């Protein structure tokens, strides 16, 4: 099952932070990435391996996702992720539906795997051109409250919306 194909990828990693067990990704440039995510007729997700499924299902009682990843994950910084002319197809065979995002052009950065994050770009969805500028604060797994800001503009119909506040994870 093909999940990802792309025309070109360029990844640059800073060497000095590696000496202190930190990973600083200076830049990732993805040219024409094409991602297909599928939920099959049995409800299985093509992007989940058996190992990932077991890890997500096998948490000890009271163990949070954040506690589990903070112990194992190295410090990772992503200074720049640039996507040029990307495509994402999400197929849900169980529901008989498909969603397609095309012409994705975006720049993303993340100070760590838990944020803060910022992404700005444009995309075509349902034959509508959309511009976006989104920011999320550092994810705090204990509080399950995440600060977020966003602007979205449908350029074809000159409609835009903004959000600034918090997003709370279900308890």
Order of helices and strands: EEEEHHEEEEEE
Amino-to-carboxy terminus distance: 35 Å
The total count of helices amounts to 2
Helical content stands at under 10%
Q: pLDDT average, as an integer?
A: 86
Output the structural class: mainly beta
Radius of gyration: 18 Å
**Which ranges are low-confidence, i.e. pLDDT below 50, for 5 or more consecutive residues?**
60-70
Beta strands, count: 10
**Largest sheet: number of strands, sense, barrel closure:** 10 strands, mixed
Strand content: over 45%
Shape: globular
Give the SSE map:
Layout (H helix, E strand, L loop, with lengths): L3 E2 L2 E7 L7 E10 L2 E6 L10 H8 L7 H8 L2 E18 L4 E14 L6 E9 L2 E9 L8 E10 L4 E10 L3
Parallel strand pairs: 3-5, 4-5
Antiparallel strand pairs: 1-4, 2-3, 5-6, 6-7, 7-8, 8-9, 9-10
Task: Describe the model.
By secondary structure, the chain is mostly beta strands. 9% of the residues lie in helices and 56% in strands. It is built from two helices and ten strands. The chain has helices at residues 50-57, 65-72; strands at 4-5, 8-14, 22-31, 34-39, 75-92, 97-110, 117-125, 128-136, 145-154, 159-168. Strands 1, 2, 3, 4, 5, 6, 7, 8, 9 and 10 form a ten-stranded mixed beta sheet that branches. A hairpin with a 7-residue loop joins strand 2 (8-14) and strand 3. Mean pLDDT is 86; it is low at 60-70.
């Amino acid at each position: 099952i093909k999940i990802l194909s792309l025309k070109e990828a360029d990844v640059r990693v800073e060497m000095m932070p590696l000496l202190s067990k930190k990973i600083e990704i200076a830049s990732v440039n993805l040219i024409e990435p094409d991602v297909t995510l599928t939920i099959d007729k049995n409800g299985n997700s093509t992007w989940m391996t058996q190992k990932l499924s077991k890890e997500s299902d096998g948490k000890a009682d009271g163990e949070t996702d954040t506690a589990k990843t903070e112990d194992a994950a190295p410090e990772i910084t992503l200074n720049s992720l640039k996507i040029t002319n990307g495509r994402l197809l999400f197929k849900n065979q169980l529901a008989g539906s498909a969603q397609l995002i095309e012409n994705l052009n975006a720049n993303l950065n993340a100070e760590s795997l838990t944020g803060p994050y910022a992404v700005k770009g444009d995309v075509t969805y349902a034959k509508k051109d959309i511009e976006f500028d989104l920011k999320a604060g550092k994810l705090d797994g204990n509080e399950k409250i995440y600060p977020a800001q966003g602007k979205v503009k449908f350029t074809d119909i000159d409609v835009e919306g903004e959000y600034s506040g918090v997003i709370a994870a279900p308890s």
